[in-house]
Amino acid sequence: MKHKKFLISIDTEGDNLWDYKPGDTITTENTKFLTRFQNLCDNYGFKPTYLTNYEMANDPLFVKIFKEVAQDNRCEIGMHLHAWNSPPDYKLAQRDDGLYGSAYLIEYPLDIMEQKIAFMTDLLTERFWKKPVTHRAGRWATNQNYFDLLQKYGYIADCSVTPGISWEDCPGFTKDSKGTDYTEFNPKPYKIEGTGILEIPVTVRENHRFRKPPVKRLKSYLGNTYRALRGTGKIWLRPNGNNLENMMWLSDDVYRSSNQYLMFMLHSSEFMPGGSPTFDTPEKVEKLYQDLEVLFKHIAGKYRGETIGNFAKGLKEDNR
Predict the structure, then answer these.
(1) Is residue 317 packed enough to be buried (19+ CB in 10 Å), middle (13-18) or exposed (0-12)?
(2) Which domain holds residue 283?
(3) Inter-residue contact 84 to 103 (CB < 8 Å)
């Protein structure tokens, strides 16, 4: 069987933004921990796409290291837009229902949306000497206005869609604002209506993995078979310290399918101890790397690494 593509998407952003509140100083210490991950990718010929936000584009160390890596074609620098702290500043009316979430770009007036996209595109182009062509929305939220603006500023690929997952329970900053519902979205690449942008969705599947019961009992086998057939919830290639077997099953399931790629995702801060709630100790980060070694070795036997932008360009050329 022909090798499929392995796409690595890293939301490249400040430290532990899960705890962020308006007015907090955002640090970027996680930059110091990214070379280890890049070296791991280099060992397997994988090419991460670092979807970079405002504070990381202003981190001199990140720019110094990854401008060179990108120039060597070992990674791609894309855009990740956190609207709440990306210029220009614009004051939104905060919701008054007791709920709270950082502002989605789609909550802003259209002209402010455009100014923020234009600013980040220019900043990344200046910092990394190459115009970004791949994008992921902050907090996964998109709409047609957003895509129309990305088209205007030269983007060819978006990877914000999480098929089968709704973010509507995640409030924004303004009254009645909420995340995007991707429950019925296509899990395969598709052209976004009215644009030339290709949506390259995150790999998300229903988990149909069969778990062999520890004790040989017919009832246990039948129960586990039923659960595998029915599905046990959504699974994606996003490490959490306890899901290596599920991720390996997912990589095999996608390989057997008609989809042409497998997409991994993680946040840059998750490679740093204390940079996230999930990997908050050195021991948990070491466990993460142990899992990544096993997972990447498994994937390397069936997939070939590619950046998201180059993958999208290849799809466009194949469909001409």
Answers:
(1) exposed
(2) 4-318
(3) yes
